[in-house]
Amino acid sequence: MATPSLAPETSLQIKRTFAAPLPTLFDAWTKPERMKKWFLMPSPGMESTIHEVDLRVGGKIRAEVQNKEGKTHRLLAVFKEIVPREKLVYSWTWEEGMPGGGESLVTVQFRQMGESNFTEVTLTHERFPNSEVRDRHNMGWNGCFDALAASLSA
């Protein structure tokens, strides 16, 4: 059976290797006290608040970020699949403050790099309405990954 390919106009994929063991990376994506250091913070001067992380299928992530101009963006994500220390799948909906979006889908996969303390994270974000929204999220996720790397080395 052929593997379906991602539609390039409406999806993005980012793969990054972090200098941290897999349990540390998984916690950074699932524990509010770790998430607040990087999640939804693609550039300096932004401030995020993690209101809820209910780590179960059907559970929610509720978070918001305030940009440098003071505008707030509110996120609602609902977990669709959780494989501890391996994979997270959740819906992604901007409830307020982000034009053009609707519901999209995020898949985060974690892979320990052999016996080392390095972990590869592959993020796939798909079902964007158009390439403009995809490009904004691509820029945002890359900034968040930079913030994640910085939080791991702090």
Report on this structure.
The protein is α+β, with helices and mostly antiparallel strands. The chain has a single domain, classed as START domain (Alpha-D-Glucose-1,6-Bisphosphate, Chain A, domain 4, 2-Layer Sandwich), CATH 3.30.530.20. The chain is 23% helix and 40% strand. It is built from three helices and seven strands; from the N terminus they run E-H-H-E-E-E-E-E-E-H. Strands 1-7-6-5-4-3-2 form a seven-stranded antiparallel beta sheet. Strand 3 and strand 4 form a beta hairpin. The longest helix is centred in the C-terminal third of the chain and has 23 residues. The protein is globular, with a radius of gyration of 15 Å. The model has no long low-confidence stretch (mean pLDDT 91).
CATH topology grouping: Alpha-D-Glucose-1,6-Bisphosphate, Chain A, domain 4
The largest β sheet comes out as: 7 strands, antiparallel
Unreliable stretches, pLDDT < 50, 5 or more residues?
none
SSE string, helices as H and strands as E: EHHEEEEEEH
Instruction: State the helix count.
Output: 3
Helix content: 10-25%
Radius of gyration: 15 Å
The CATH homologous superfamily name equals: START domain
Query: First CA to last CA: what distance?
Result: 45 Å
CATH architecture: 2-Layer Sandwich
Q: What do the pLDDT scores average to?
A: 91
Extended strand count: 7
SSE class:
alpha+beta
- CATH class division: Alpha Beta
Shape: globular
How many domains? The number is 1
Strand order of the largest sheet: 1-7-6-5-4-3-2
Strand content of the residues, in percent?
A: 35-45%
